Amino acid sequence: MYVKICGLSEPEHVAAAVEAGADAIGFVLTASPRQVSPERAAELAALVPDRVLTVGVFRGEDPATVRAAALAAGVRGIQLHGKHPHGDFTALKDLGRTLVRAVDARADLRCGAFDESLLIVDAPRPGSGEPWDWAAVRGRPTGRWLLAGGLDPANVAEAVAAAGPWGVDVSSGVETAPGVKDSALIARFLTAARGAV
């Protein structure tokens, strides 16, 4: 089970995610309670070993803005969240970064349809932290796809059983308040997610 911990902003939480075995760590570089500057993301990304993918998360920015911020942050992956056209992904391919497309269940759920390497299927209201009908997408997404939206240590096993994803992505489910991560919750989430398969 591939696990991405998103929205990290403090060194201790980056360390907790790495130590607990996260496969990917996301830094939010767009408007959000979890937003960090590219410079802060670069400091945090420098703490992450090469075996863990660092991802800059964007929503609605144009490719030139994404390119500049991703390069400044030094991340190895770029996540475009929401209704980004195929051309936005094409415009970033030359960077050689892992491209991640994050959408809700109404979108094209074929991983690779927009030249992305990873697909995230999120709740109808992304970032809300609200559980949704995970079973509704079972069998629909193809390729390397991660389930997101309303996941936490207590329900991730249930969500995996319902949707059958290749991986999972969590942000608010390992927080004690919006944007405030908790190292113990991060560790519990990883244990629960990996125990679900």
Write out the strand line-up for the largest beta sheet, numbering strands in chain order: 1-2-3-4-5-6-7-8
Distance between the termini: 7 Å
Rounded mean pLDDT score: 96
Task: Catalogue the unreliable spans.
Answer: none
H/E series = EHEHEHEHEEEHEEEH
Structural class: alpha/beta
Task: Write up this protein.
The protein has about 200 residues and is of the alpha/beta class. It is about 30% helix and about 20% strand. It is built from 6 helices and 10 strands, in the order βαβαβαβαβββαβββα. The strands form 2 sheets. An 8-stranded parallel β-barrel has the order 1-2-3-4-5-6-7-8, surrounded by 4 helices. Strand 7, helix 5 and strand 8 form a beta-alpha-beta unit. The model has no long low-confidence stretch (mean pLDDT about 95).
List the topology elements.
Blueprint: E1 2-5, H1 11-20, E2 24-28, H2 38-45, E3 53-58, H3 63-73, E4 77-81, H4 86-90, E5 98-104, E6 118-122, E7 145-147, H5 156-163, E8 167-170, E9 175-177, E10 180-181, H6 183-195
Parallel strand pairs: 1-2, 1-8, 2-3, 3-4, 4-5, 5-6, 6-7, 7-8
Antiparallel strand pairs: 9-10
Helix pairs in contact: 1-6, 2-3
